[in-house]
């Protein structure tokens, strides 16, 4: 299932200073995005009806300016935003919140 129309991806600017990340997490700079390897972890967030959900996905590939990842978290608001654990999602690179190497 895809992200419902009532939901949207969060941007890094919206989440600045509002996330707790592991010390080894990296900023989503153009250089870090260019160097992603399959299986690296990508922090993504969605908002719907005032609820925010932040979760990890595993990087699969780039599709133009979009990233494709497999959700790697149990999600609390699936019924609201339409995303589920283990599902493939495609999202804009400018909505990437953080990166963690998995190699």
Structural write-up:
- With 103 residues, the chain is mostly beta strands.
- It has a single domain (7-15, 22-100), classed as Roll (SH3 type barrels).
- The chain has helices spanning 12-15, 30-34, 78-81; strands spanning 7-9, 41-48, 51-63, 66-71, 88-92, 98-100.
- Strands 1, 2, 3, 4, 5 and 6 form a 6-stranded antiparallel sheet that branches.
- The longest helix is centred in the N-terminal third of the chain and has 5 residues, at 30-34.
- The model has no long low-confidence stretch (mean pLDDT 91).
Using the 3D structure, state the CATH architecture: Roll
* Structural category: mainly beta
Give the N-to-C terminal Cα separation: 29 Å
- Overall CATH class: Mainly Beta
String of helices and strands: EHHEEEHEE
- CATH topology (level 3) name: SH3 type barrels
- Total domain units: 1
In oligomeric terms, what are we looking at?
single chain
Percentage of residues in DSSP E strands: 35-45%
Total E-strand runs: 6
Shape: globular
Identify the notable features of this structure and list them briefly.
single chain, 103 residues, mainly beta, SH3 type barrels, six-stranded antiparallel sheet, 13% helix
Strand and helix map with partners:
Blueprint: E1 7-9, H1 12-15, H2 30-34, E2 41-48, E3 51-63, E4 66-71, H3 78-81, E5 88-92, E6 98-100
Antiparallel strand pairs: 1-2, 2-3, 2-6, 3-4, 4-5
